[in-house]
Amino acid sequence: MKISRPVEFGAWFLIAINLAMAFGSIWIFTRMAPAIEVIISRNEVSLESCEDMLSALLKGKAMGDSSVFEFREALAMASSNITEQAEPAVLAQIEAYYENAFSGNGESLLQTIQSINDLGDINREAMRCADVKAKQLGYAGAWGVVFMATGAFLIGVIFLRTLDRHLVEPMQEINAVVTSFCKGDTLRRCTLSKPAVPVRQVLGHINELLDIKSGTSRSGALESGSKTAITRRA
Predict the structure, then answer these.
(1) Contact of 169 with 182, CB cutoff 8 Å
(2) Burial 84-114, CB ≥16 within 10 A → b, else e
(3) What is the pLDDT of residues 143-185, one digit of tens each?
(4) Count H helices, E strands: the chain?
(5) Which residues are within 8 A (CB) of 216 and not within 5 positions of it... i.e. 6 or more apart?
């Protein structure tokens, strides 16, 4: 029936909006999780390597070859975990100066420490940038859900207005007219201000039935009155 199409369309549209909100929220969280995981798993490894290299340098000659071996392991770990474009140049400087630093060359030691600090700064900055991106994604997702919720609210208002116009108001009018007819008011008919075409057709059919019923009732009343009059004359 045509009158049901706007109602069905509005209901399915609301369902689609709610599904879009649900899947959109899931997509946002699944995008944020890998970004946070990158912060923890990749850049954190480079920072730990920087700490280990500085620790080995501080031990210096006290630990001898053991300190050098520990430094090389940390340097190898950092070299195998390059995540930023600026890291290779800094790692090359560390590679060039660390042996002389362990040999007691003060300038090489300072240069090595500075390069290690630069490597740490690069990874910390990368972590800050990744954190900002994750927050931006979260904010964008939150506002996206807000906009979708606002759209769902507006669609819901339109849907309720359509439901009221196409179903509630006609049913109330039909109920009032039929109730009045049963109570003896045979002149009242269904009337609505600018009803939809399907609603107008339904109301028109009801009015036609009431016209037929009220016409039959009047004919019956007239016939009964005529018979009574004839009986009295006789």
Answers:
(1) no
(2) beebeebbebbeebbeebbeeeeebbebbbe
(3) 777 777 787 788 778 878 877 877 888 888 888 888 988 888 8
(4) 7, 0
(5) none
